[in-house]
Structure formats: structure tokens, C-alpha cells
Design brief:
Elements: E1 7-11, H1 15-26, E2 30-34, H2 38-57, H3 65-69, E3 72-75, E4 86-89, H4 95-108, E5 114-117, H5 124-128, E6 137-142, E7 151-155, H6 162-174, E8 178-182, H7 191-207, H8 213-224, H9 230-237, H10 239-253, H11 262-269, E9 282-284, E10 290-293
Parallel strand pairs: 1-2, 1-4, 2-3, 4-5, 5-6, 7-8
Antiparallel strand pairs: 6-7, 9-10
Helix pairs in contact: 1-2
Bound molecules: nicotinamide-adenine-dinucleotide.
């Protein structure tokens, strides 16, 4: 990996942004983590501190946790995030918000820097189109929880140079992730093109009363060897994040298999967003332990 690529800016301090920042810091990079408020970034860094302490205690990370955390600088002023080698955008899955970030990154990043998005579904070309240098834009799509998952998609557009794609691939590998090369910039890439239709179908099965949330999860765990069922995964990912991903995929493809089910929309409207709100498809206590299935809205 070129030395410049060890200087990283992560934009978005939510579930994914903090995980990506953690992995980059564990890989020895200097990381600036940008969030919308001081509180958000500080709580993201506190979560990273807890996570690296656990990894260290389990013997899965040799370096002292404090040394890893010390490589991460909290940021709330994007204009101060100049001079890095790799910029990774991981804000909410909304085209206009991501385009706004890409416009600002294009203005402040060095000409040699990579500008990547962790979008789940939005074609990278739509983000690259608002920049003056689409050739250095690409997708780096991680999965949750980022510090534990050993894979990431690397997505190229028609404009991405071979050099940018190779650098993005090397970067992902340096973070300990097996890169999956996505050669066509299609909405949803590979992970979500394969995975989300199954999630939609699972919600529709609950809507039609075919089986319970718990039984469908059990079916997918025991029958197909998945570590988590679709509802357990959705609670971890965030129902809002899944909903926005489906809205974007449906809008991009027009394909009804990606239309967000009404039951999911009602969950969002009720504020039941999964683990982060203590209730989604399941209910959780204050310690985050699952109590059982939540009533459906
Ligand atoms: N959750 C997952 O499992 C998962 C997996 C892969 C990719 N992704 C993608 O990662 C990205 C972030 O998802 P997440 O799960 O971290 O969500 P999250 O809700 O935890 O974090 C979203 C972040 O976006 C920020 N944000 C919201 N509105 C903003 C605005 N107007 N301007 C700037 N920042 C704004 C929030 O402050 C927050 O830091 C999304 O594109 C999502 O599709 C999520």
C-alpha cells in the first residue's frame, strides 16, 4: 500500500463509519473521523475504545488498545480534512447527502487521493459525476460489524482507473478484508443484489402470516448455516438503513422485488429501528440482551 494511503479520512461516524475507522487504525493508518457533531464523533471513538479493548483481551489484537485509539482524530470540520490519501464516505444512504459530501471532498482532497463510498446500493458513478475527477472514485463496501467481518466489495465505474482500483483493493486487503472485485457499477453491487431480495421476501412472509420472525430466523440459521437470520441481521444493521437501501435499489432498478414492504415502512414510522432503539423485529433490554420478538406495528 502506498504510504499516502495510510492517511485516511472517514466521513460519517455511525455504525459503519466508526467500524471502518477502527479497522484502518488497527492497520496502522492515521485516521481522521468526521461526524456531524462533537458528541457523535466522541461516542464513536468511545465505542472503538470498547471494541479494541475486547479484541486485545481476547488475544485478537496485540497492540495496546490506547495506541490504536490514539491514531484516530475526531473531526467535525470537514474543511480541516485536507491532505489525506484515502477518503471513505459512510454517511446516510441518501443520494443527495452523499453527492454533497463528494462535492466537498473533490474540492478539498489532493488530486492523488482516492475518494470512496461505502454506499450499499447507489451506483458509484452517480457520486463520481458531481466531482471533477471521477477516475479516482470507487466503491468500498464493508459489512457489519466491520471489525469482525473479513470481506469488502471494491467497486469500479467505467471511469475508475486501473491504478485507483488496484489501490482501493490493496487498501481493503491491508485492513484485513478479502476484496471482492465488482467490475460493473450496478445498483446494490453483489452483496445486496443477492441478499436484499431474501430479506424482502422474509418480511412479506411475516406480513402474510406464513411464519413468525423468530421461526424464519431459525430456519435460515439451522437450515442454511447462516450465523444470523434476516431479522436478526436487520436489527443489527438498522431497519432505517435497510429501508433506505431498498428505496434506493427500487428507485434505481424499478424492480418490484426491491420494493420496501409496508410492514418495514410502518416499523420506520414507529421509530423501531432495531438494536439502536431497543426495538425492531425483536426487543432488547438496556444491556442490549434480546428479550424476545417485538409486537408488529
Ligand atoms: N449498517 C450496515 O450494516 C451497512 C453495511 C454496509 C454499508 N452500509 C452503508 O453505510 C452507510 C452508513 O450507514 P450506517 O449503518 O453507518 O448508518 P448510521 O445511521 O449508523 O450512520 C449514518 C451517518 O450519517 C450521518 N448523517 C446523517 N445525515 C447526514 C447529513 N445530512 N450530512 C452528513 N452526515 C449525515 C449520521 O450523522 C451518521 O453518522 C450507508 O450508506 C449504508 O447504506 C451500511
Amino acid at each position: 500500500m502506498p504510504v499516502a494511503d495510510t492517511d485516511v479520512v472517514v466521513i460519517g461516524a455511525g455504525l459503519m463509519g466508526h467500524g471502518i475507522a477502527q479497522c484502518a487504525a488497527q492497520a496502522g493508518c492515521r485516521v481522521r473521523l468526521w461526524g456531524t457533531s462533537r458528541d457523535e464523533v466522541e461516542s464513536a471513538i468511545a465505542r472503538i475504545g470498547t471494541s479494541v479493548a475486547k479484541l486485545h483481551a481476547k488475544g485478537r489484537m496485540a497492540e495496546p488498545p490506547a495506541a490504536v485509539v490514539a491514531r484516530i482524530e475526531p473531526m467535525t470540520d470537514l474543511e480541516r480534512c485536507t491532505g489525506a490519501g484515502v477518503y471513505i464516505e459512510s454517511v446516510v444512504e441518501k443520494l443527495d447527502v452523499k453527492q454533497q459530501i463528494f462535492r466537498r471532498l473533490d474540492a478539498l482532497a489532493p488530486a492523488s487521493a482516492l475518494i470512496a463510498s461505502n454506499t450499499s446500493t447507489i451506483p458509484i458513478a452517480r457520486l463520481a459525476a458531481v466531482t471533477r475527477h471521477p477516475d479516482r472514485c470507487l466503491g468500498m463496501h464493508f459489512t457489519s460489524p466491520v471489525p469482525l467481518m473479513p470481506v469488502a466489495e471494491v467497486i469500479r465505474t467505467a471511469a475508475t482507473t486501473d491504478d485507483a482500483f488496484a489501490r482501493g483493493t490493496a487498501f481493503v486487503r491491508a485492513l484485513g478484508k478479502e476484496p471482492i472485485a465488482v467490475q460493473k457499477d450496478i445498483p446494490g453491487f453483489v452483496f445486496n443484489r443477492v441478499n436484499l431480495p431474501g430479506t424482502v421476501e422474509a418480511i412479506r412472509l411475516v406480513e402474510m402470516g406464513a411464519a413468525s420472525v423468530e421461526d424464519i430466523d431459525k430456519a435460515m440459521r439451522l437450515g442454511f448455516g447462516r450465523p444470523m437470520g434476516p431479522f436478526e441481521t436487520a436489527d443489527m444493521v438498522g431497519l432505517d438503513t435497510g429501508y433506505y437501501a431498498l428505496c434506493s435499489l427500487h428507485a434505481e432498478t424499478g424492480d418490484d422485488k426491491f420494493r420496501p414492504p409496508d410492514l418495514l415502512r410502518r416499523q420506520i414510522e414507529a421509530g423501531h429501528l432495531g438494536r439502536k432503539t431497543g426495538r425492531g423485529w425483536y426487543e432488547y433490554d438496556a444491556a442490549g440482551e434480546r428479550r424476545g420478538m417485538a409486537p408488529l406495528p
